[in-house]
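Aim 2, interim progress. The first record below pairs a target sequence with its structure tokens.
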Amino acid sequence: MGIVTLVVRDPRRGGAQKALSCELSMLTRGSGFFAAALAGVGPGQDARIDVECDADVFVWILRYMKTQHASGGDVAGCGAARGAAAAPAAGPDAPGRAHMQRRHQGGSGGSQELAVGNCLEILVAAEFLQMPRLAAQAVAFAAARLPELLAARPEPAPLGLLPPDLLERVALAANEAELEEAFEKIGACGGERRCRPLQRLFKARLSALLRAHDTVLLRCAACGGLFSAAAARKLPCEAGGGGGGGGPHDASRLLLHVPDPNWSFGDYLRALRRRERRSHREIYWHVWGLVQVCGWLLLLLLLRLLLLLLLLLLLRLLLLLLLLLLLLLLLLLLLLLLLLLLLLLLLLHYQMRVIC
């Protein structure tokens, strides 16, 4: 049985070194990074690896590996769990999130439970070591405990240490309502300094929002309004019909928004930040409203068309009813005429008998 000696150099402690040992099979099964690094080491061979990491974090991860290895589970989750690790990016309300929370709050991890004080460091380390299952658990934990992370004393949790992709995963693992709840709790007592990490989450969420809708904002050259590029050919422009001549084809074309080529979405966002001093949270909701409302406008347009069709059908039905009423009136008139003729005939017959 091969043994790997891990010499951990802790940069937080001035480069102090700590030697740890671990079975080769457990290490390669538990981490995709170590599996690649030790690919040339035979099953019965010993090896040595130097690691630069926070010693406490690395010890925690090794204990996690041992606990998972002892239970016979797939420690790294490098197969199917790799897809699950990316699942939070697909939407903020992924159903797997609650499952992940149950796992790290007392499942097969044993005593190795994530905590507010270590979840971010473990997330970074797990991602680097290619342990997607642990990374997914850390993402779910951080998203569920955002208020506690931001309220940590004496300083809020350092969300800034997360690379952009992990920051976005945490931002997407928490839905908008949870982010707003965290903002209300932290903003009421912590001020701008404690809200700053939360603003980073809104910034990351904005990038994900635009990517999910495959769109940016454009400004209409005719009306000056902002609209989503994804709905550029579907949204009507109220000011579009006022310009230009031509025929009916030109008029229908002008009813659509015309993008202003001299307007830049990036410059607009920078202006909101620098000149108007808007926070990333305010910018997120501003853009969210423009992107999402476009969908509602399309729905309203469809509803309008349906209402118009219903009105046309009702008008046709009313016309048919009027025609039927007219036919009935004509029939009644004919019946009255027939009755009058019969009366006249009877009168004539009576008079003829009297004369005779």
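The second target in this work package is listed in the same format:
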Amino acid sequence: MPINPDEDNMERGENQKEDSASPQKKPRNSLSNDESNGAESSIEKSGGKRSDYISWEDYFMGLAVVASMRSKDPRTQVGACIVNQNNRVIGVGYNGFPNGCSDDKFPWTREKNTDNKNLYVVHAEMNAILNKNSESAMGCTIYVTLFPCNECAKCIIQSGIKKVVYLQEKAKKEVKLKDKAAKKMLKAAEVETEKFQPSKNWNTIGRKFN
């Protein structure tokens, strides 16, 4: 059956009217020019970066806290982080048994015989010093979650570390002669000791120790 040209043109005209009458959908997540310019200007006003980022001190002590969470000791978990003058981490450690000494076979108790963990555990500070990369620790700072004992103080002094930043000290009732000796040696060797002062953002990192 032949198509009437007039009817065909009329039908096309009706379709074009319907298309032009239907609303145009905007693509999702698109911003108008005004919205886009407003977002850019707000970034420019704020300086273009976050203001609530953590400080270097929070960062390094945070690494020490995270390292402590690797310790298998059921009673005391300690972490340490060594940092050079360029804010570069050169060593991290936590308290645990030496390489080759199984965490499942050696004791975690404190018995009076050879089943005493203190005879075997390598402290966090010592592990950080022994496990550091090839860089020298001379002039570095060590961040620790617990003030060093006398043996760790010796290693800190001998390695050339010049500053100890600590998160906690032992409770007064737990302080022993070796802890007093540690402070005496560090002071004599002119190794600075400083209690960690958290920033307002520390709570996001240090909840484990709050």
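The domain at 56-199 is CATH 3.40.140.10 (Cytidine Deaminase; domain 2). This observation will shape the mutagenesis plan for the next reporting period.
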